[in-house]
């Protein structure tokens, strides 16, 4: 039978894309399900109420998680395997009614989103097609973006967005070849203002600031490095450097022994960038932070997750040090 599981504030119960092998009931605390709006791609936060189920659809449907389950305060949940949940549900009709209520609320929210999309003033076909391409590119779905921008340039070669569509097509092709779908640094779209800020001179300055900050870390100047990395992220000059600097900010917090702050920062960063290129390193530092806070169970969960996600393409060094950390915990 299932047993209660406890999670600390700022931790994650599961990530988007994880295999769905458990169904959860929130007993105490606060949990938020974070997923993307179907229209804008913006994050939507769906709070789970005590006594409600979550993770049901993906577990019963046997498809990967569609959202991140974020713990907002110290929380206790009951975790069921699918067979355990089916057995309990069949023996208790109230559980089925409660589950139907949750599904009904979710369907109403989806209906509102669809109605809002349908009620909007219809866009010209060219603008609509271009907007779809930008959505795919922004969300690192490069193969779809490549297809859409190809279509745009085929049907609207003289369209008002033709020049930018050609640039976006090149970005999609290069990113797909270099990183693959869903991977790599985020993609930002350049307006006339941002295009000037991403000039070669500014890019060179950003790179210099980044490597100066890395040098500061090697000298033990963690606070100075933190300030410099933060200035890069706040400027948003170039996505590749912004992504690298975002990771280093959390590392500086860890090196400054600000373990809670590092955990909260990385949790928020993973909500925004669930497929960050340094994801395994982020999770290792989150494990180290939990270990420093004497939360061995949470630390072990992060280490085990790294080994599950690693695979053949993982950096050997991160796998080796994760195994050592896990062995040191006695897990």
Describe this protein's structure.
This protein is of the alpha+beta class. The chain contains 14 helices and 6 strands. Strands 1, 2, 3, 4, 5 and 6 form a 6-stranded antiparallel sheet that branches. Strand 3 and strand 4 form a beta hairpin. Helix 4 runs parallel beside helix 6 (162-178) and helix 8 (200-218) runs parallel beside helix 10. The longest helix has 27 residues, at 93-119. Mean pLDDT is 79; it is low at 191-198.
Key features?
331 residues; alpha+beta; 6-stranded antiparallel β-sheet; 14 helices; 61% helix; flat
Rg from alpha-carbon coordinates:
22 Å
The biggest sheet, with number of strands, parallel, antiparallel or mixed sense and barrel status, is: 6 strands, antiparallel
Number of helices: 14
Oligomer state of the chains in this structure: single chain
Shape: flat
Give the total of beta strands: 6
Helix share, percent? 55-70%
Order of helices and strands: EEEEEHEHHHHHHHHHHHHH
Instruction: Briefly note the structural class of the backbone.
Output: alpha+beta
- Cα distance, first to last residue? 22 Å
Average pLDDT for all residues = 79
Which regions are unreliable across 5 or more consecutive residues at pLDDT < 50?
191-198
* Beta-strand share of residues: 5-15%
